[in-house]
Structure formats: structure tokens, C-alpha cells
Design brief:
about 900 residues, alpha+beta, 19 helices, about 70% helix
């Protein structure tokens, strides 16, 4: 084909060198081209068949070569399969040997680890037993300490109970002795009074007996108050003793609890220190164990490395034997087969070498440690082949030497670390000892501080007790002085009342004598016509004795025609009030005991006082005294006027007694007493109490004359009494500079008693702020007030001279609010604040937590004003609005 192409390209006249025909030239010479083509085609055909024959021969040679190659590859495959089987068998043996040694080493490590764990568990058990023994010892010590504390507390309580019992017995004896002395004094007074007035007249003796009885009653009331004061002092003494014991007991309990807490803290610190030291010891033991374990693993790794190199040598011998066997087979064949076989051997060897790894395993990553089969890398095998001048034993020794150097370096590091841990353990022990010393010092300082604080509290409590006892005694003395002063005034008032009663009795006796001595008959009947009085003139006039007619109807003294209508006349008058006879004299007829009639003049009057309703008839006999009718009528009228005057004086005396009673009793109580009924004590669930006192009254009492003090108190109390009259409140008492008022004791203001007292307190501030003392123009009078709302018990104390008294904690709280207040300000409790908030209209300012004597700290408020009030208040109160 190439020859044809070449001939074509060399043809003249129409064919160029690139094989492209110029058809224009060919068309000009068709004949010459045809001849040339025929000649040329014959040569080309011959050349074509010659080349085709050569190609067939080359194909035949290639087929023979391929058949030989196939046979060679089959032989190589057989040899490779046989070699691989031998090598796999040898590797299996090596792997079984490696697994055996590795399993034995793992078993050794497992048994060793089990022993170490058992030892560690044993150490832990021993430590737990030690901790348990320490804990048991601490618990026993704490239990004994607790028993000792309880025993000490019990002994103290028993001693305190004995002291209380002794004091109670002593106080009972004191009260009994006081009561006996008071009774003896009263008996002496009675005997002396009887002896002094035994020679007097009956009327004088009776009056003196009443005065003596009144004085004795006052003395009994004063004695009762003295006994009450003694009991209050005794109760305060017991209360102070109990507070002192409570403080001592609290001190003992606090110190003992603190010691127990400190002991627990020390035990916890010791346990924590011991645990920390044990952890450090375990750390050192673990480090030692790790050193031993690494040494064993490195020894095991060295032995496994030696075994590995032995296995590598055995594999190398096997492969050399396999290679020699392959070469012998190749020599028996032709040259081409030998070359191809040698290349096959080299490829097989290269392939086998790629599965070998003779490099030493990295530290900490050995096959034995990972539990994997040992593999030989191609790189290590080639390095081993490249260093055939060195024996396998030298290579192993070199590797083992490097590993021993590495192990030695690591062991040295571990030993250094072990020494460091040992010094750390010693430092830790020193640190724990120092920490315990610091803890002991801090606990000792804490206990000393508690002791100092408790001693300080004890001194403060003793000082407070002394002040409280002194204030109580001073208040008792002042109260007794005031009581004696008031009793003296009351005795004088009662003496005047007794004198008035004596005069009234004398006048009544005179009246009875006059009635009996008049010549006119005087007959008194009640509203149903029953005769209650029948004088001597009536007896002479009608012929009846008084005993015969008293208690019978007046109709027996009247004619029949009048008697049948008399009851009708009385009932009509009682129903209509229209007088026909009463107040008018008229002539009538009377019937004597013998039945005879006689002319009389009847004058009837009516008395209606204090539930007494009587009709008095003055009857005059007109038989012999007709000529004297006018004169007798005039005399009768005069006598009637005298009787009315006496009755009026009696009524006035009674009114004065009622007014005097109303001044010291509430209206409901005074009415009850006037009716003759004994008043019963009452419990008021809610009432408001006001305590007010003159600021600096004690100093004023010392620096001022008694006359000035009386004038000052009279001025202040009169002013406050005027203010009280404008409010629905009740004045409880006024003792020296203290003025006590209550509200809520009457059903009319049971709901707004707090508002009444609050308005009264503002009025007190206003009038006192404007009050001037005539004898002391340079002095400004100030008061301080306290208000509290709560339950109150009220009742009448005494019989001869009864007093209306209030009792309960509410009075003490109000008094203490007054004591803890400030001048010209009103301090109210939280209960009163709530009542005033519900009522509305009052302005209050919160004072905050205030310590009231005898009570815990409580929230109190200032009363600073009232809405829509025009009363001027002092600056001390109004300044609270701007705060």
C-alpha cells in the first residue's frame, strides 16, 4: 500500500506529491495515464501479497510467544500459590506463638492487676475501718459531751427551780405578814374608835361610825394597793431572776453548742486531711505500680521484638528457598522462559516483601499492647536486606539497647516524680497541721468573743433590771402618796355627805314629829288607795289606831257614795293626769270608827320621786272649827310648803350624791349603783386607752412648792376636763403628772373609740401648747402621749367607796408607748393605726421599729393631724408632715 501511494505520488503530469490529482491535466492526457496505471497496478498487486505473507508469519510467531507466556504464567501461579501456602502456614505458626506469649503476658498482667486491686481494696477497707473507728469514737465522745451538757443544764434548772420555790415561799410569807399587819391595824382603829365614841349620843355615834367605816374602807383600799404593789415588785424580781437565768442558760448552751460545732469542724477537717493524704499515698502507689507495669511491658515488648526478628529470619530463609526453587525450574526451560520467570520471581518477592514490617514498634503502641497480630513492613525488610553486612543479632541488640536507654530515662523521670510526690506528701502533712492550728486558734477566739458578748449582755441586763426596779418602786411610792391624798379628799367629801345625811335624818325626824303633833289628820295613800301613814290627829279624828288602818284601803274612811267611786277617780287620774282633787282643798265627809259622819276639809298632795308615788291627804275636822277654817287652811298650806322644801332639800342632796358618783363612774355604772344593784365586771374586746404625762414633772415636783404643784395640776386637769367634756370618752384616773382616758367602754361609741381618742389627743396637744402658767411665764408646759387599742377588763373595786378600774395588758402597752414617746407628740401602736386607717380622716407618720419597755421591738406611728381640723398643733407634731 505504501508502494502504491509512492508510485502514485511519483506519476508525471497530473499527480502532485501530496496525492491530490489535478483533473484538468489528466483530462488532457487520458491515454498515457491508462497505460501507466495498468503497468503500475501489476507491480502493486505483487508487492501487496508479499507484505500480506510476511504479516501472517509475524502473527504466527506472536501466537507461539503468547502460548509460551501462558504456560509460564500458569507455572508462576502454581509456584506463587505453593509459596503463599507455605508462607501462610509459617505465619500462622508465628502468629500462634505470638498469641501464646501475648496471652500468657496478658494473663500475668490480669492476675497481677487482680492482686493489686485486692491490695488496694484491702487498704481502702483498712482506711474505712479506721475512719469508722474514728467516727464511732467521735460519736461516743459527742454523746458523752451531750449527756454532760444535759446533766449540767438539768442541774442548773433544778437549782433555779429550788430558788424560785424558795422565793415564792418567801414572797408568800411577806404578803401574809403584810396582810396580818394591815388587819391588826384596822382592828386597832375600830377598837379605838368604839372606845372614843362610846359615850356619845346615838345619832353622833352612828355618824362617827360611818366616818370610821369610810376611813377604814379607804385604809383597806390603800392596803390592797400596797399589797398589789408588793406583789408587783415580787413578780418583777422573779421575772428579772428568770431573765438572768435564761441569759446564763443561753450562754452555757451557746458555748456548748459552739464547742460541739467546733469539734465537728475539727473532725471534718481531720477526715478531709486524712482523705487527702490517702489520695496522695494512693497516687504514689499508683505511680510506683505504673513504673513496675511499664518495666514489665517493656521487657515483654523486648522479648516480643526478639521473637519477631526470629520470625523474620525464618520467613527470609523460606523465601530464599522458594526463590532458589524457582530459579532451578527456570534453568530447565528456554531462555525466554527463564527471563520471564526471573522477572516473575522478582515481582513475587517484591509483593511478598510489601507484607513485611521489620521496624520496631513505637513506644506504647506495640502489637502486643494493642492485641493485634505482628506484621512486617516492606520498608523494614528492605532496610534489613540493605544491611546484610550486619547480623540479625546485632540489629536486635541495637534496638534493645535503644529501648533500654529509653526505659532508663523514663524510669529516672518516674523516680524523680516519685521523690517530688514524697516531698509533696510531707508538705501536705505540714500544711494540714498548720491548718488545724489556725482552726483551733480561730475557734478559741470565737468562744472568747462569745463569752465577752455574753458578759456584756449580762451587765446590760443587770443595769436594766436595776433601773426597772427603781422606776417601779418610785412609781409605787408616788402612786401611794397620790392615793393617800385622794383618799383624804374623798374622806372629807364623804364626811360632808354624812353630815348632810345626818341633817336630813334630823329634819325628817323633826318632820315626823311635826306631822304627829299637828292637829289635822294626815293620811298618805299609794296609787291603789292603800293607807301608808296615819298620824295621831287622824287617829283622834276618826277613832282608829294607825295600826288598824295602815295597809287598808282609804274607802273605809269615806262615805259609801264616795267610796264606791274612789278607785275610779284614782285610775282616771293615773291614766289622764287631769287633777280634780289633788292640789285643791275641798270639803267632804268622813266616817269614824263608830260609823258616824263628820264634816272635814281634805287637802290632797302628790309625791312622785325616784319611783315613789304617794298621795298625802290633810284632813281637818270642821265640826268645832268652822270659824277657824281659813286660818287652819293657811296653816296647812304653810306646813305643806315646809314639807316640799324638805323634800326638795332631800332631792338636792340626792342629786349632789349622783353628780359626785357620776364623776368617778361611767354613766352605766353610776345608774346601776344608784338602783342598788351590784355592778358586774365587763370584758371589752376592743377599747382605746390614752396615757398622757407632763414632761419633767419629777424635776418640777422637786423644784416647786406644793402649792404651786397643786395649782399647776388644777390648771392642767381643769383644762383637760373641759376638753374631755366635748368627746365621748371616760376619764379613768389622774395621778400626779399622768392623765388616763379611755373610750369604747360604752356601746354608743364601740366602733369609733380609736377616732375619739385620736381627736382628743390632738385637742390635748392644741390646748396645752396654748396654755400659760401664771406663776411661771418663762416655762412652756409640754406633754407626751401614748395610745393603744386592745382588750380591756373593767369593774368596780370596793364597797364602801367603790372605784371603777381598768385592767389588762392594753393599759401597760399604752403607758409604755407614752414613756417611749417624745414631748408634744402622740405615739400610737400598730393596732390603733389600723383602726384609724379604717376610720379615715387622720394623718399618721411611720416612726419605725421602736423598743417598748418590757416588750419586743414593734412598729409604731406618730399621730400628726386630722383632716379639716382648725385646731393649731405644736411645731413638734407639724414638723413630722415635712419629713
Amino acid at each position: 500500500m505504501t508502494e502504491v501511494a509512492s508510485a502514485t505520488s511519483e506519476a508525471p503530469g497530473g499527480v502532485d506529491t501530496t496525492g491530490c490529482v489535478d483533473w484538468g491535466t489528466v483530462a488532457k492526457s487520458n491515454d498515457s495515464i491508462l497505460d501507466y496505471f495498468k503497468t503500475n497496478m501489476g507491480h502493486r498487486t505483487t508487492d501487496f501479497y508479499s507484505a500480506l505473507r510476511a504479516d501472517c508469519e509475524r502473527i504466527e510467531e506472536s501466537m507461539k510467544t503468547s502460548e509460551h507466556e501462558v504456560l509460564r504464567k500458569e507455572e508462576d501461579a502454581y509456584l506463587e500459590q505453593r509459596n503463599n501456602a507455605e508462607e501462610a502456614h509459617l505465619k500462622q505458626l508465628h502468629q500462634e506463638e505470638i498469641n501464646y506469649y501475648k496471652a500468657r503476658f496478658q494473663s500475668f498482667l490480669a492476675s497481677r492487676d487482680a492482686r493489686k486491686k485486692a491490695k488496694k481494696l484491702q487498704r481502702q477497707t483498712i482506711r474505712d475501718m479506721k475512719r469508722r473507728d474514728i467516727l464511732i469514737a467521735e460519736q461516743e465522745s459527742a454523746s458523752k459531751e451531750e449527756e454532760r451538757i444535759k446533766s449540767t443544764q438539768t442541774e442548773k434548772r433544778v437549782a433555779f427551780d429550788r430558788l424560785i420555790a424558795f422565793l415564792n415561799n418567801k414572797h408568800d410569807k411577806q404578803r401574809r405578814q403584810l396582810l396580818a399587819a394591815q388587819e391588826r391595824k384596822i382592828q386597832y382603829e375600830r377598837v379605838l374608835d368604839e372606845m372614843m365614841h362610846s359615850h356619845e349620843k346615838v345619832e353622833v355615834r352612828r355618824s362617827m361610825e360611818k366616818k370610821s367605816l369610810a376611813r377604814i374602807n379607804h385604809q383597806i383600799a390603800a392596803n390592797k394597793r400596797v399589797a398589789d404593789q408588793l406583789q408587783e415588785v415580787q413578780q418583777l424580781e422573779l421575772q428579772q431572776l428568770k431573765e438572768k437565768f435564761d441569759l446564763d442558760f443561753e450562754t452555757l448552751e451557746t458555748v456548748q453548742n459552739m464547742k460541739i460545732t467546733h469539734a465537728k469542724l475539727v473532725a471534718e477537717a481531720t477526715s478531709s486531711n486524712l482523705s487527702e493524704i490517702n489520695q496522695e499515698k494512693e497516687k504514689i502507689i499508683s505511680l510506683k505500680e505504673k513504673l513496675k507495669l511499664e518495666r514489665l511491658e517493656l521487657e515483654h515488648a523486648g522479648s516480643m521484638q526478639t521473637l519477631l526478628h526470629r520470625h523474620i529470619a525464618e520467613l527470609r530463609q523460606l523465601r530464599e528457598a522458594q526463590n532458589m526453587s524457582s530459579i532451578g525450574l527456570a534453568k530447565k526451560g528456554d531462555n525466554s522462559f527463564l527471563g520471564s520467570n526471573l522477572s516473575l520471581v522478582h515481582s513475587v518477592a517484591s509483593k511478598n516483601d510489601s507484607n513485611l514490617d521489620l521496624s520496631p514498634p513505637p513506644k506504647g503502641d506495640t502489637a502486643s499492647e494493642r492485641g493485634e497480630p505482628v506484621r512486617l513492613s516492606k520498608t523494614s525488610f528492605r532496610r534489613e536486606k540493605s544491611t546484610t553486612s550486619r547480623s540479625g543479632k546485632d540489629r536486635v541488640n541495637s534496638i534493645q539497647s535503644q529501648e533500654r536507654d529509653s526505659v532508663t530515662s523514663e524510669e529516672e523521670d518516674r523516680r524523680i516524680q516519685l521523690k517530688v510526690d514524697g516531698s509533696t506528701l510531707e508538705r501536705l502533712r505540714v500544711k494540714h497541721s498548720n491548718a488545724l492550728s489556725i482552726l483551733y486558734d480561730a475557734q478559741k477566739a470565737e468562744i472568747e468573743e462569745v463569752q465577752v458578748n455574753m458578759d456584756k449582755r449580762k451587765r446590760e441586763l443587770e443595769a436594766s433590771h436595776a433601773i426597772e426596779m427603781r422606776e417601779l418602786v418610785e412609781s409605787h411610792n408616788s402612786e401611794i402618796e397620790t392615793l393617800y391624798s385622794n383618799q383624804e379628799k374623798e374622806i372629807q367629801m364623804e364626811a360632808s355627805v354624812h353630815e348632810a345625811e345626818a341633817r336630813m335624818l334630823v329634819e325628817r325626824k323633826v318632820l315626823y314629829s311635826v306631822v304627829d303633833s299637828v292637829i289635822s289628820g294626815i293620811i298618805t295613800i299609794d296609787p291603789i288607795g292603800t293607807i301608808t301613814r296615819f298620824n295621831r290627829a287622824a287617829e283622834q279624828m276618826f277613832g282608829y289606831q294607825a295600826s288598824e288602818v295602815i295597809g287598808k284601803n282609804i274607802k273605809m274612811l269615806q262615805p259609801h257614795e264616795i267610796a264606791v267611786q274612789h278607785d275610779f277617780f284614782l285610775s282616771r287620774y293615773l291614766e289622764t293626769g287631769v287633777r280634780r282633787i289633788i292640789g285643791h282643798g275641798r270639803k267632804a265627809e268622813g266616817v269614824k270608827k263608830n260609823g258616824s259622819r263628820f264634816p272635814v276639809h281634805i287637802s290632797v298632795s302628790e309625791v312622785l320621786e325616784e319611783g315613789i308615788h304617794l298621795f298625802t291627804g290633810i284632813v281637818r275636822d270642821l265640826t268645832d272649827m268652822v270659824e277657824y277654817e281659813n286660818k287652819q287652811a293657811h296653816i296647812a298650806l304653810q306646813k305643806q310648803e315646809q314639807i316640799k322644801l324638805l323634800l326638795w332639800e332631800l332631792d338636792e342632796t340626792k342629786k349632789r350624791s349622783d353628780v359626785l358618783l357620776a364623776e368617778v363612774m361611767p354613766p352605766s355604772i353610776s345608774k346601776t349603783l344608784s338602783s342598788g344593784k351590784p355592778p358586774t365586771p365587763e370584758q371589752f374586746s376592743s377599747a382605746t386607752i390614752l396615757f398622757s404625762s407632763i414632761v419633767g414633772f419629777s424635776e418640777m415636783y422637786i423644784s416647786t412648792t406644793p402649792t404651786e404643784i397643786v395649782e399647776l395640776l388644777n390648771l392642767v386637769y381643769s383644762t383637760l376636763d373641759e376638753v374631755i367634756s366635748m368627746h365621748n370618752v371616760y376619764k379613768v384616773d389622774s395621778v400626779q403628772g399622768c392623765y388616763i382616758v379611755a373610750s369604747g367602754l360604752d356601746s354608743q361609741n364601740s366602733g369609733d373609740h380609736a377616732a375619739e381618742i385620736a381627736s382628743l389627743a390632738l385637742s390635748f396637744l392644741s390646748v396645752v401648747n396654748q396654755l400659760s402658767i401664771p406663776t411661771r411665764n418663762d416655762m412652756r408646759l409640754k406633754i407626751q402621749l401614748g395610745i393603744h387599742t386592745g382588750p380591756v377588763m373593767a369593774g368596780v373595786v370596793g364597797t364602801a367607796r367603790p372605784r371603777y378600774r381598768l385592767f389588762g395588758q392594753t393599759l401597760q402597752t399604752a403607758s409604755r408607748l407614752m414613756d417611749s414617746g417624745l414631748p408634744m407628740r402622740v405615739q400610737v401602736s400598730e393596732d390603733t393605726y389600723k383602726q384609724l386607717s379604717q376610720s379615715g380622716g387622720f394623718k399618721l407618720a411611720k416612726r419605725g421599729e421602736t423598743v417598748v419597755r418590757g416588750e419586743d421591738a414593734t412598729t409604731t406611728y406618730w399621730l400628726v393631724g386630722k383632716e379639716n381640723s382648725s385646731e393649731p398643733l405644736p411645731e413638734e407634731t407639724t414638723s413630722l408632715l415635712s419629713e
